[in-house]
Amino acid sequence: MLIFDEKKYAKNLLKKKEFQTYRQKDIERYILIRYLANEGMSTEEIRKELDKFPLIGCEYLDKKDVDIIYEKIIDRALSYPLVTGINTMIFKNEIDVINSVEDENARNLLFVLLVYYKWATTQQQLFFFSKHNNVKMAVTNDMDIWKYAGLMKLRVADRYRLCNQLILKGLYVEDNFKSNNYFYLPFASDAYGSGEVAICINNYDNILGELYIYNDPEHYKRCSECGVVIKKTRSPKKYCDSCAKEIKNKQNLRYYRENADLGKTQTVLSPVK
Ligand SMILES: [Zn+2]
To answer: Is residue 35 within 8 Å of residue 26, measured between CB atoms?
Structure first.
């Protein structure tokens, strides 16, 4: 679970009215609390919203005990700030290093690692400064990185082989610290690094798309609603799948409302398909 933008994630939770994972729902609850507090809600108002997302195991407890549990959860959630609006800058010299990797999967992996590394080193709980290496090291998150890099189709052994390739080339360094794995990328400049900015990412829904559109602008474009990178097709599609769906829903809603207002049973017009 990698949440680059908690505000966006929380809005989606409220829309879907349920947690999106089973195992990580505590984290999801924290995100929701941070978002609601950030929107200016009082503890009581937050509490009311949380009731829509049941806390499993509390059915048999006294109301007083449940209140204490919620108090602790809210406290813990608010010990971190809401993660939102983080811009990740990728510099031209970094892209040059990435593009010098011949194997496409290894190249994609390195790009996603770079984006994650830069983002994670803005999150105090995800990195530490290694005096030994004189660099910020971010906690590894193989599974999510592989997903974003489109590597889930490969066997696990092959995914690790790609990591090894990057290690051998001196582009990726991993170290163990307090029983966690951390890594850094020797070619990464810090957030305010010098040089020409090639890519600025603020929508993390399609990280790999950012590399594709930079390298091959002929075949990629951006959704005109949310800015996420989409592949150009023969049809003149303007939106990404999720925005297209949302726009269609809104249009259908408007259609039904207008017709209900008129009290008509028009058969000439039909809802947008
Ligand atoms: Zn979109």
So the answer is: no
Instruction: Report the separation in Å between the CA atom of 222 and the middle of ligand 1, taken as the mean of its atom positions.
Output: 8
Whether 269 shows a pLDDT value over 60: the answer reads no
What global pTM score does this model have?
0.85
- Residue 240 Cα to ligand 1 middle (Å): 4
Q: What tens digit of pLDDT does each residue of 248-267 get?
A: 888 888 888 887 766 555 55
229 Cα to the center of ligand 1, angstroms = 8
**Which of the residue ranges 182-186, 226-230, 264-268 would you say has the lowest mean pLDDT?**
264-268
Q: How far apart are the first and last CA of the chain?
A: 34
Amino acid at 250: K
| Domain covering 88-202: architecture | Orthogonal Bundle (1.10)
Q: Separation of 271 CA from ligand 1 center, angstroms?
A: 21
Return the amino acid letter for 231: K
Task: Give domain limits for the chain.
Answer: 6-77, 88-202, 221-261
Q: How far is the CA of 236 from the centre of ligand 1 (A)?
A: 14
Q: Is the pLDDT of residue 194 over 80?
A: no
Q: How many residues does the chain have?
A: 273
User: Does residue 249 contact residue 258 with C-beta atoms inside 8 Å?
Assistant: no
